[in-house]
């Protein structure tokens, strides 16, 4: 196997990259982006070796405690639990939220061997026990497993007299009712609120 | 800017990778594919540094002369000119062609400053002058620039008394006439052949 074949094969670890895209990536880098390719190789090697999990929130971090957890300007009374770093980033970018996060790095899924320990809930338990957090905003995904995780988290919060809250479900802004799935529409109809 | 941001940015040199995919790639590698990521970094750094162009055919090669050009079992009388290494690979995989290749690494495009020199046509000129090649199979893409390049190559071949040939154009196998573009259909109609 040639080095070029090795490179094409190596690109396939990336998500959504099949044989054709991997080949296109390899050729593209060799033809037009050697400097960028060298930089990607350097940064990737460095990141894979350096980036670990924040001791407080389990998000990715280069340091023991991530910048958000270490920030003095964030509201220590609000904690938002999300499934993944991508969800954390989405909330950070879309909302004006100024509290802290807790990244589960997954969701409860007993069949896959993912229980409370794998989600770092012992860490969360200690965190809520510190008595600083007043509200746990549960932002797990609205899937079956995400909902099960949300219920578990809500119980954990209540045990520590922390108020659990959940993101609102309903019709997406700018969406057309006709194309909203039945479960969402039914939920939105049932949870209708008075017009302000 | 954090190392994670650097990594996301670095992934964007890959073709077809926007901010969202780059972010997904970075998270995926850090969450689930650290070993694969390390391997990709190693192979990529090595490839970018090592892989250069074959002295004979301009295809990518780790050695001065690529394995195909160096092979004693390939027919030295046939030379197939393609625009890119990907085209070379496609022909190699789809056909039983046993001749040699010449990879232009582009097509004539005067407005972009790509002339005969950039396509290594001086090298091709010398190659045809050696007198070994009998037929130049021109497999440039059927685009305006590809056709212009094909005409230029055909003239070059004739100047050396080498027979130029061109891939057949027509209705793709398994295609439905209804969905074939007008140019192709018109060409296929005009070039119709007698039923065997």
TrEMBL record, chains A, B:
Which Gene3D superfamilies has this protein been placed in? Answer: 3.40.1360.10, 6.10.250.240, RecR Domain 1 (1.10.8.420)
Where does the chain cross the membrane? Answer: none
Classification from the root reads:
Bacteria, Pseudomonadati, Pseudomonadota, Gammaproteobacteria, Lysobacterales
What's the protein name? Answer: Recombination protein RecR
Zinc finger (C4-type) residue numbers = 54-69
- Family per similarity comment: Belongs to the RecR family.
- Which domain of life, per UniProt? Bacteria
- All copies of domain Toprim, residue ranges: 77-172
Pfam families given for it? Answer: RecR_C (PF21175), RecR_HhH (PF21176), RecR_ZnF (PF02132), Toprim_4 (PF13662)
* CDD domains tied to this protein: TOPRIM_recR (cd01025)
Chain's gene name: recR
**Which UniProt keywords are listed?**
DNA damage, DNA recombination, DNA repair, Metal-binding, Zinc, Zinc-finger
- Say what the protein does: May play a role in DNA repair. It seems to be involved in an RecBC-independent recombinational process of DNA repair. It may act with RecF and RecO.
């Amino acid at each position: 196997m040639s080095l070029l074949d090795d490179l094409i094969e190596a690109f396939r670890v990336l998500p959504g990259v099949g044989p054709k895209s991997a080949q296109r990536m390899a050729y593209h880098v060799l033809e037009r982006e050697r400097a960028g390719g060298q930089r990607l190789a350097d940064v990737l090697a460095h990141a894979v070796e350096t980036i670990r999990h924040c001791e407080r929130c389990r998000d990715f971090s280069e340091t023991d405690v991530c910048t958000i957890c270490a920030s003095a300007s964030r509201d220590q009374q609000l904690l938002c639990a999300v499934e993944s770093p991508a969800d954390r980033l989405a909330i950070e970018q879309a909302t004006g939220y100024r509290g802290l996060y807790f990244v589960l790095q997954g969701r409860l899924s007993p069949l896959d061997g993912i229980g409370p320990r794998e989600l770092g809930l012992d860490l969360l338990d200690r965190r809520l026990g510190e008595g600083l957090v007043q509200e746990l905003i549960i932002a797990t995904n609205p899937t079956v497993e995400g909902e099960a995780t949300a219920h578990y988290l809500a119980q954990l919060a209540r045990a520590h007299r922390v108020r659990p809250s959940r993101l609102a479900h309903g019709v997406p802004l700018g969406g057309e009712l006709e194309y909203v799935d039945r479960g969402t529409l039914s939920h939105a109809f049932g949870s209708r609120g008075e017009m302000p």
